[in-house]
Write a structure and sequence with these properties.
globular, five-stranded parallel sheet, FAD/NAD(P)-binding domain, alpha/beta, 417 residues
Length: 417
């Protein structure tokens, strides 16, 4: 067994995605000696786990990392996966981020006067640590998966890459938030028969009152507080709610679950149990569809309308077509995978936070750090890039920079006598 190397560094940033790199930008500006480590062997963060045809669901103009806002020739387009990865690599190069790849931190603990991180034969002794591992570290797969017959191929959406990767036959996609809905649409477009277990998620129009939905969300995020309109978190549990169903594919479009049904995708309620080749669903598909179809008007539309009024914007009228009054699609509460010729199941069931390697008592019942705007309850320990860390933009390109800046300001303040 080789001898462990000990390195001393003022600040260690764990995670080299957009959150870690944005933090590095501000640390460099502040003159703080630091190192960014990432377990992967290449830059790109969680975007590397997306499927081949993945693209952003927010327009390119929302790519606003500090020091490098989007400067391409397609601001209204939706960047594809590989270009997102290139964007992050270019950003790391531009800001000269001190990144060390292939470095997996397996334990973080307190020590006299600071923190100690263990990673692949190296011990980092540091005054500050910034947790920037993002909201997608550990796929969440329901226990029902263990009851499904072994000859059925199963994979999480983080491992899905393309339709041809799946066993021949029909496909059951479990979960209809952003990933599940887009994967179901892609499989259907590829000619696969698709069955979709519907999550309780909101749908949203791609465009509203003459603008892309992302434009309105960015305006409220950046300027809403100035006119008294802000996005608010209804509850702590809502930090983990699915994002509105919308797509950036083909120049961007809305996703209508009832249209899925009319196109031939078979819809079901929530997958509740499994036994061999039989899976069972909740008997509330209609309620789930109504929820998806009404949440935008109940919440986001009201916020946008309030912002339009408060900011005095002369916006185009709401010209969306009326909500479909088509009858509820045919469904059932039980499905025989074998009889339906289903050869594979894609679990688009989201992710869990995973800070099991952090040996510090700073986490709540959701494994979320106890903090105030990224400053945790343990001195010298910070977090960036988590959903609703401070605002609705905390985990996306448009908002992570502001959180990172605040964290670095606090960190620098600790160094001053």
């Amino acid at each position: 067994m080789g001898k462990e190397t000990v390195e001393q560094i003022d600040t260690l940033v764990i995670g080299g995605g957009q959150a870690g790199l944005a933090t590095s930008y501000w640390l460099t500006k502040a003159g703080v000696d630091h190192l960014v480590v990432d377990r992967r062997d290449r830059l790109g963060g969680g975007w590397l786990d997306r499927w081949d045809e993945f693209c952003l669901v927010l327009p390119n103009f929302t790519l606003l990392l500090p020091g490098m806002p989007y400067d391409g020739d397609d601001p209204d387009g939706f960047m594809v996966r590989d270009d997102v990865v290139k964007y992050l690599s270019r950003y790391a190069s531009l800001i000269n981020a001190p990144v060390r790849l292939g470095t997996n931190v397996t334990r973080l603990a307190a020590t006299d006067g600071g923190l100690v991180a263990h990673a692949d034969g190296t011990t980092f002794q540091t005054r500050n640590v910034v947790l920037a591992t993002g909201p997608y570290p550990r796929p969440k797969i329901p226990a029902a998966s263990e009851k499904i017959s072994g000859h059925i191929q199963q994979l999480h959406s983080s491992d899905y890459r393309r339709p041809g990767q799946l066993t021949d036959g029909a496909v059951l996609v479990v979960g209809a938030s952003q990933s599940g809905a887009q994967i179901a649409e892609e499989l259907h477009r590829a000619g696969r028969e698709v069955h979709l277990a519907v999550s309780k998620c909101s749908s949203a129009p791609r465009r509203y009152r003459g603008r892309d939905l992302g434009w309105w969300l960015l305006q409220v995020f950046q300027n809403g507080a100035k006119v008294g309109v802000e996005m608010k978190l209804p509850s702590l549990a809502a930090r983990f709610a699915g994002n509105p169903i919308v797509s950036g594919q083909g120049g961007g479009h809305s996703i209508d679950l009832r249209q899925f049904a009319r196109d031939g995708i078979r819809l079901y309620g929530r997958l509740e149990s499994a036994d061999g080749t039989t899976v069972r669903f909740s008997d509330d598909l209609v309620d789930r569809l109504v929820f998806a179809e009404t949440q935008f008007d109940n919440q986001v539309r009201r916020m946008i309308e309030a912002y339009i009024a408060a900011a005095g914007i002369d916006a185009q009228p709401d010209d969306r077509p009326p909500r479909s009054d088509s009858p509820a699609p045919a469904t059932s509460t039980e499905l025989d995978l074998a009889a339906a010729d289903i050869g594979s199941v894609v679990w688009a069931t989201g992710y869990r936070l995973d800070f099991s390697w952090v040996d510090l008592p700073v986490f709540d019942e959701w494994e979320y750090p106890r903090h105030t705007w990224g400053v945790t309850t343990h001195p010298g320990l910070y977090a960036v890039g988590l959903p609703w860390l401070h605002s609705t933009g905390s985990s996306v390109f448009a908002g992570v920079g502001a959180d990172a800046e605040h964290v670095v300001e606090h960190l620098v303040g600790r160094r001053e006598p």
